[in-house]
Amino acid sequence: MQFHITSGINLLSELFPAQTGKRTPIGYVHFVLTLQGEAWVEIDGRNLHLQKGSFLFLLPNVQLRRISQTEDFLYDYLFFAFDYLADFPLLLKTDVSDKAMNMPHCKFDTETFALIKRYFHLINERQGYTEVTKGLLFSLIVEISRIYTDLNIATKISRQDELTDNFFRLLHSYYKKEHTATFYADRLCVTDKHLMRTVKARTGRTFHFWLSDFLMREAKFQLRSTDKSVTQIAEELSFPNSSFFARFFRKCVGITPLQFRKG
């Protein structure tokens, strides 16, 4: 397939695998526009925070891994082969490619976000007409090249961003067993108060929100996709007992685990 576009997709697994190793195919470029919600992904070993207005410019042979996403996360996504636009002039100048390689993620302002979103909408709407689709896609590439030409590449990541990224990497690995801020803070060589303040400042959500989010998404998956008992799931997620887990689940979701499974 030389061209594909998907609009308003929720699952990061469409593009980002859970394990490191997947790479974007040779000869293809991927564009991803975040519409709402938040997600954390890893691109070539760098942790990135996606939110509304975030744009990913993924060149061939880029390594991808998903870390986490909020339940309301939505994004538009398209890819194309260089051969698909073989009849058009050179697509990506060297300086644009270099910037995309060094900075695959950028955050659009409101006006630019609306412009790129319109392009995605038009391309999706007109994809049955190949020549029109190619023309719109070429125009989108020119717009994105213009944006990247004017982009100032950030050479340093802030200490807060680095700490937050490392926290989510640890949370992804240990949330089933470790439920205290102290554990993660100790691993990151900071105080638990400093970690919690930083996470709240960088994400707008508390440590306990993110821990609960990870736990509840796993619990929902287990309830709907396996025949494990509530007790087994509670033990796997390191809750003291099934009653405590059931109360916690109801507080977060609004119904009991069994009601969720039956629904």
Automatic annotation (TrEMBL):
Q: Which of UniProt's keywords are assigned here? A: DNA-binding, Transcription, Transcription regulation
Gene3D superfamilies recorded for this chain? Answer: Homeodomain-like
Highest taxon above the source species: Bacteria
InterPro entries recorded for this chain? AraC-bd, Homeodomain-like_sf, HTH-like, HTH_AraC, Tscrpt_reg_AraC-type_HTH
User: Could you tell me which residue ranges the HTH araC/xylS-type domain spans?
Assistant: 165-263
Pfam annotation, one family = AraC_binding
**Name assigned to this protein:** AraC family transcriptional regulator
Q: Which organism is it from?
A: Butyricimonas hominis
